[in-house]
Design a protein that fits this description.
Elements (H helix, E strand, L loop, with lengths): L6 H10 L10 E3 L7 H15 L3 H17 L3 E4 L3 E5 L5 E5 L3 E9 L2 E8 L4 E4 L4 H15 L10 H8 L19
Antiparallel strand pairs: 1-2, 2-3, 3-4, 5-6, 6-7
Helix pairs in contact: 2-3
Length: 182
Amino acid sequence: MGFLVSGCVLKYSAMQNPQQAPEPPLYWDTPGTKFNFTIVFALVVTLIGFMQVNPFLFILGVGVATYSWLTNAKQYLIYPDALVIVYGRPRVKTYPFDTIAHLELLSLPMGDRLRLRMTDGRRMMLKTRDAENFRIQLDAALDAFYGGDWKSGQGQEEEARQQRPPENQLGESSGENDDVPY
């Protein structure tokens, strides 16, 4: 897969190596869907509110469009030490590999999703265009980061859970295995 140069990629690379040329990601992918219906619908509501001089519809449309722009991923990048998710500008989230505890691929009726469990108990779903290949590439990058000791979260999640204080164990109401494909 080719390398897509964007300002966000260069920004992340510049933060990591200020004196060196930007380092390209090991792998990148885009979200499963290119077209965002929520933004289009919100902009139509904004236009209707503007044309009818209805400030409520206008503000509602602008608010929903802004929220959708800032929360829908545009690109997923795998670097040697972090997973970077590029949302609508200016939002770029970096997840260092030492914060990822478990990685699994879920086959759901609405398509494959990649579920990440973080060391602090948070969970995140990624919807990439090619989820299986992205999981393989992320597993390989995690394995290289941990020096061959990465086993897709086996053991690392339990170690991280034991290191967390009870008040930081988010979403864990019991000790049972909760393989719910939310």
